[in-house]
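User: Structure please.
Assistant: Input sequence and predicted structure:
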Amino acid sequence: MSHYVDPACFCGKGLRPFLGRTVIVTVNGTALPAGLLACFDERTGIVTLVISLTDVRYICCGNIRSIQPATPANGG
């Protein structure tokens, strides 16, 4: 059975509880590496996911299909 996810669900209040947390974000069926959900620009809909000092992803909130908490690789 297929489940429909409204793309707008992560473009507002659904995203806020995850800000500042280490998460795994799934974008269009692909799980990205765990990273810090650092920022959400409500005007543009861009989410900033910091995976490492050299890997920062800017994601359109409408492309996010799921977000789940993750344990950082260093355990802290």
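The longest strand covers residues 35-41.
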